[in-house]
């Protein structure tokens, strides 16, 4: 299956159901029985409050139907959304028709953003980076940011705890569904960002699957962890990155060899 076709109407309905149950009572998902719930907006609002956006514009990469737009509107941002999926962008166009905070909605992949260098004050890529060709996408995020612009980025680390059964199940399930899935060598990515001269403003590490939704984090990078949320300030022009992600986590590979 072409990766673009994966993000279709039925994925849209699925993700809507997962977002709808987030933040409601109970820790486990009813959509995927036994899994952790996905994080609700409050988790993102916490980060934006601690590390405020620059005033002006935000590019939401992988915006889906505009799930985060109400949050960005509260922050008085002018919003541009981009998503690889036609179904998602059509839904966003319908839901935000006539909304003057939403300046543009584009069907395009994160790795080829249809914008000139230095256009946006902020870029957010939330719950999407693991579906992208990460080195190419990260280059693009920094390219379209203004100097001093802020990047908000979440992703999955390439080594999580061996006994994190929810993480292992999710990785296995994703592979069965052909869900595009990439795990970051977070240390290698941070090293390259720093080498380029970008400033890491904050890093949050969520040890196990489900900790993100509960805001259970540490700020010193553990050896193994499941997810991260990084806040980066663009300080230098974007340069190409060497690959720093893999389609299979080290934890999963080790488990397979047992
Ligand atoms: C799990 S949803 C997250 C949506 C939204 N950011 C949120 O936090 O609810 C992933 C979204 O990323 C989009 N997506 C996946 N791969 C992409 C890519 N390479 N470029 C742009 N968008 C992508 C999908 O179509 C989908 O809308």
UniProtKB/TrEMBL annotation:
Which GO molecular function, any one, fits this protein according to its record? S-adenosylmethionine-dependent methyltransferase activity
Region of interest (Disordered), ranges: 239-258
For bias type Low complexity, the affected ranges are 239-250
Domain Methyltransferase type as annotated: residue spans? 59-152
* Pfam families with a match to the protein in the record: Methyltransf_11 (PF08241)
- Record's protein name: Methyltransferase type 11 domain-containing protein
Native species: Candidatus Taylorbacteria bacterium RIFCSPHIGHO2_02_49_25
Taxonomy of origin reads: Bacteria, Candidatus Tayloriibacteriota
